[in-house]
Amino acid sequence: MQIKWYSEQHSKLNVNKKGDVVYLSSPVLDDIPWLRNGISTRLGGVSKDFCGSMNFAYNDYDHPGDVYKNYQIFCNATGIDINKIVTTKQVHSNTVVKLDETHTFRSISEKGCDFPSVDGVITNVSSATLFAFSADCSLIQIVDPVNKAIGLCHSGWRGTVGRISQNAINMMHENYGTNPSDLLVTIGPSICPECFEVEWDMISEAREGFSESDYDKIYYQKNDTKYQFNLWEANKIVLEESGVKCENIFMPNLCTKCNPDFLFSHRNSGLKRGTLIAFLGIK
Predict the structure, then answer these.
(1) N or C: which end of the chain has fewer CB within 10 A?
(2) What angle do helix axes 164-176 and 231-241 make, rounded to 10 degrees?
């Protein structure tokens, strides 16, 4: 298994192997005894062809039975209660919802979700495991170790410009008394600055969400029509402006597009691909 890290000099995610299942976890979160965290890879499942092998999306390119089998295999390897998984129908929004004790869990054995048109969930409910899906976008794990509360966000460039992680942190403060300076945050594997090529329309929108002093940090012009966008740094800026300490933010150091045999990437494969998940749960 060859992993191409973005930088050999910076901190890396922990690589875990249980049977054939390989998943990643955060060094800043692994030592919290009441927390369950991780990010899937494409290894260890039963899906075939371009969805091979650990695909979590009930899409048009995979057999539903194989997708459900992947959930079973992955949950068995990671200790997740398959009957208490919480999913959303992600739409690249900045909408965040709270999961409380009144929630009725649905079966993960078929297509559907717990919350439609939502890209972030916060909770302090024990035994629930939040899932977020991606194949290039950032998946942001937010943990309040003081008040035992968590948040998980899907943050592509639209969610990042819309400051979805800030919305989640504000909601955690309102509902759980979270102090942003206590938070531990991991930005999961996602597309790196050198691979995320965009055009001016996206840059124009992105500029509206950031101060001019940050422009050089979040993008640079490649040629007359193309730009490179730094999704990682943009999310870091949002988190720091939300009150999270720089030293408490774990950066990805792993690009989805640069690792086609290890991670799924929309930029590599388009819609004909599997989907990764990040998970976060309170034991």
Answers:
(1) N
(2) 30
The CA radius of gyration of the chain, in Å to the nearest whole number, is 18
How much of the chain, in percent, has pLDDT values that exceed 90? Answer: 100
Is the CB of residue 149 less than 8 Å from the CB of residue 179? no
Reported as type and span, the H/E element at residue 15 is: strand 14-18
* Residue with tokens 């009725």, as numbered in its chain: 104
Classify residue 147 as exposed, middle or buried by CB count within 10 Å of its CB (0-12, 13-18, 19+). middle
Q: For 179-226, what is each residue's pLDDT tens digit?
A: 999 999 999 999 999 999 999 999 999 999 999 999 999 999 999 999
In whole angstroms, give the CA distance from residue 5 to residue 12: 8
Element (DSSP H or E) covering residue 228: strand 227-229
Helix, strand, coil share of the chain (percent; to 5): 25, 25, 45
Structure tokens of 83? Answer: 């009957």
Report strand pairing: 88-89 vs 249-250: unpaired
Distance (Å, whole) CA 11 – CA 103: 37
Contact 205, 229 (CB under 8 A): no
What lies within 8 Å, CB to CB, of 11 at 6+ separation is 27, 250, 251, 253
Total length of the chain:
283
What gap in Å lies between CA 7 and CA 259, rounded to an integer? 13
Two tokens, residue 18: 């249980």
**C-alpha dist (Å) from residue 36 to 22, 176, 252, 278:** 16, 19, 18, 11
